[in-house]
Design a protein that fits this description.
mainly alpha, 6 helices
């Protein structure tokens, strides 16, 4: 397959020259890295879903849920509700 050749003859030699481990190097790693960055930058979930070509938004949420909650908290904290930042409200509620 062409993707295997791209990784074997294109990506891995470049990573080796740069001293970067190639054990887990592959196009999927770049795809996942991009999606994680997009999620962390508060990209709307439907946009992220389309970029990843997930048929169901639940797939996107399941795979990137570890990034989405923190980015959403950061967004809310930037706006802040009333005079008490969101993180302080969470701490008051959660103890």
């Amino acid at each position: 397959m062409w993707r295997d050749n791209v990784v074997k003859y294109g990506l891995k030699p470049v990573l080796k020259k740069l001293g970067i481990p190639t054990k887990f190097a592959g196009l999927h790693a770049f795809r996942h890295g991009l999606a994680t960055e997009l999620a962390d930058k508060n990209t709307p979930i439907p946009v992220l879903q389309k970029q990843m070509r997930h048929a169901d938004v639940r797939t996107t949420l399941e795979v990137y849920a570890h990034v989405i909650p923190q980015s959403q908290r950061d967004a809310m904290e930037a706006v802040s509700i009333g005079t008490v930042p969101v993180m302080e409200q969470e701490q008051a509620v959660n103890g």
